[in-house]
């Protein structure tokens, strides 16, 4: 029997034990000392809640939409950044690249994640106070306002004040992703007490978001060369998705299945008015889940060190040579890098719904094995824009690059889903499960920030230029 199946069996036994306890009459529970007289009425209605199901998978679909909608504005930025900012908005009127255009990609990704990291830490310490959905709704309103600012600048000529526009854009990205980080951290905490697949629903939605945005990028590029029209469409759709998520938050709280898992109730063993401290919850979450926190950090460190800042500059031919691949040069980055990565990451996260191998105690092995990609991608035809390589290309095959990026993405989606499901399930108390989910989300973002910072060092090492 695999370790994951053992984990499910333990969880099933806990659930069946709880059901058998609830099946007793309130009077017998009072007599046996399990509950007090004051909680008798609460338990009398609790037995009916055991039969509540997610009819129509409405809650599952809502979590998937939250994952999709929370990442849509950032994915739109990520996919259109090269064409819109690097090649259009931040270029001189002569069309020549400047420092702002050459460094925007790295600056954008780092500025996006550092505030997200900070707010996810803050959210852990205020996790037990207040309604998480209310906090998430406020975050969505802030994201919506930043999307509006971005759309406004599409129609403003910024060519005479590029440095100012560069700074304003980075500030808007910081605010957007700080809110987004708080939203995602709260979302993983909210999903943690639910069954396995509901945490995975968030990751499925996030990975599907990347696939959908990449497909949209290719379709709009084929339909029109008007980059302003494409940017308007991208951010307009982002605004619609944020509005849908905000409405779903209001609807979700009315569903019985959500209330069963999402609204934390006092433990039967807790004394009225007694509340465990945040620090004690953090210590308890770390006691059993610390290896999963390390696993999710290492997984996303490798992923974000290479994607997108390294992978997007891997080309079919060496610098100065002619492009000769089945995918044209115009769509090479879109298809081979972004579509491949997002599609296979999405497939990997879907697989985790049915296949759960390796188990919690051995999942570190494939996580560590992914460090192979840290050597491979920089040693492939990695040719960062406007910079020459200081080291020779060791892996020139484009088909080998396609294969590696597929495996790279598949393992990223699959392993991240498993780890984010394993981390909360090391605990039985829903409050500790929620805390473990939020710390796992922080570890994920910490891995992203560390990886993005390291991607800059990879470019520096390969090219010798900062």
UniProtKB/TrEMBL annotation:
It holds the Pfam family Nucleoside_tran. One of its GO terms (cellular component) is plasma membrane. The keyword Transmembrane applies. Its main location: membrane. The chain crosses the membrane at residues 58-82, 107-126, 138-156, 162-183, 195-219, 231-249, 293-315, 335-355, 362-379, 399-423, 435-458. Residues 25-37 have a biased composition (Low complexity). Residues 1-49 are annotated as: Disordered. Residues 1-12 have a biased composition (Basic and acidic residues). GO terms for molecular function: nucleoside transmembrane transporter activity. Keywords: Membrane, Transmembrane, Transmembrane helix, Transport. Residues 13-24 have a biased composition (Polar residues). It is found in: Membrane. InterPro entries: Eqnu_transpt. It is a multi-pass membrane protein. Belongs to the SLC29A/ENT transporter (TC 2.A.57) family. This is CRE-ENT-3 protein.
